[in-house]
Specification:
Elements lengths: L25 E11 L4 E12 L4 E5 L6 H8 L7 E10 L2 E2 L5 H7 L4 E4 L3 H4 L6 H13 L3 H14 L18 H12 L6 E5 L7 H18 L2 E6 L2 H7 L2 E6 L2 E7 H6 L4 H8 L48 E5 L2 E4 L11
Parallel strand pairs: 3-8, 3-9, 6-7, 7-8
Antiparallel strand pairs: 1-2, 1-4, 4-5, 9-10, 10-12, 11-12
Helix pairs in contact: 4-5, 4-6, 5-6, 6-7
């Protein structure tokens, strides 16, 4: 692997300024997050920067433990008690969320930011009716009466494709299928017409047919209301069909960022290329085994030295022990790697 002459000197800024972020709805700047483990601290997110514009869908992909969900939770200050933001800014609609009083942050949740989580059974209250849970955001944030909010809830359930919506307001979560529960979660998330919808592994537990329906629903809502979507997934194939741009995360940092078509046609980081080789295609020989990425992701408690992917990269060289920076390789396409296309590492 050759040395990229465009790389900065060691110790320079580790993160590009997010290009095009001037008119962004959400702009995250140099965000770092730590977990207190008692005797030590583990930094699970390192100087992450990205932005999302109104009506845009930004994908965040990577293996489990790469920092995707923790980053998403930090946007509304929903981190667990032993986690803290070590540095950075989260600018949403022109205000730094990290500087807001807690009551103002609570007002953002549900009103301007909607969340769709992976498992609706752990997000929905099993002791409350579906109607009361879908109606709650409208009562809390929009000041609707109980009657108005229940009528609004029925409209929302109908909008997300639940038949006989009005009749099902008195049902409980256990009376709905997995796909229908996820539709309920979407109804709750869009109850106040939020500016940003955060979908965190929202289709992982669903069968393929239901997954496609949910993805189509999220896309149609984004197009209809110009809702920005932060779409978090470990499935690069799903991201390719959903997202306008994709950030690839590994070891708590962004290692590649590009528009979706550009990323798939010309990956510029070995980790991204390896993820793509894990996607099955119709052209694959059914008798050939998949080529998994060997090894394990880095331990978050380990110091940040060199390329985080070095231990698992088949193209690693001595230069990789020096930390690479996230730099533009072409218009709108950045990668954190010492190698170039001329080095021949893309497969």
């Amino acid at each position: 692997m050759g040395t990229n002459v465009n790389q900065p000197t060691v110790g320079a800024s580790t993160q590009l300024a997010p290009a095009g972020s001037e008119d962004a709805l959400l702009s995250v700047e140099d965000l770092s997050i730590e977990f207190d483990l008692g005797k030590t601290k583990a930094r699970v997110v390192h100087n992450v920067s990205f932005h999302v514009k109104p009506g845009e869908t930004l994908g965040v992909v990577g293996e489990s433990g790469s920092g995707k969900s923790v980053t998403a939770l930090s946007l509304a200050r929903l981190l667990p008690p032993n986690a803290s933001i070590a540095s950075g800014k989260i600018m949403f609609e022109g205000r730094n969320v990290l500087d807001l009083p807690l009551d103002e942050v609570r007002a953002l949740r549900g009103r301007r930011m909607g969340f769709i989580f992976q498992d609706p059974m752990t997000s929905l209250n099993p002791t409350k009716t579906i109607g009361s849970q879908v109606a709650e955001p409208a009562r809390t944030h929009l000041g609707m009466s109980k009657k108005q909010s229940l009528a609004h809830a029925a409209e929302l359930l109908s909008r997300v494709g639940i038949p006989r919506a009005k009749d099902r307001l008195r049902d409980y979560p256990h009376q709905f299928s997995g796909g229908m529960r996820q539709r309920v979660m979407i109804a709750i998330a869009i109850a106040c017409n939020p500016a940003l919808l955060i979908a965190d592994e929202s289709t992982t537990a669903l069968d393929v047919t239901t997954q496609a329906q949910i993805l189509e629903l999220i896309q149609s809502l984004s197009e209809e209301y110009r809702t920005a979507v932060l779409f978090i997934t470990h499935d690069l194939a799903v991201a390719s069909s959903m997202c306008d741009r994709i950030n690839v995360m590994y070891g708590g940092e962004i290692v590649e960022s590009a528009e979706t078509d550009e990323l798939f046609s010309s990956p510029k980081m070995p980790y991204t290329s390896a993820l793509m080789r894990c996607i099955p295609t119709l052209e694959d020989d059914p008798d050939m085994p998949f080529a998994p990425i060997m090894g394990l992701p880095p331990d978050a408690s380990e110091p940040l030295i060199g390329c985080r992917f070095m231990a698992r990269c088949e193209f690693a060289q001595d230069i990789c022990a020096t930390r690479p920076q996230l730099l533009l390789r072409s218009s709108g396409h950045s990668a954190r790697c010492w190698g170039t296309e001329e080095d021949g590492w893309i497969k």
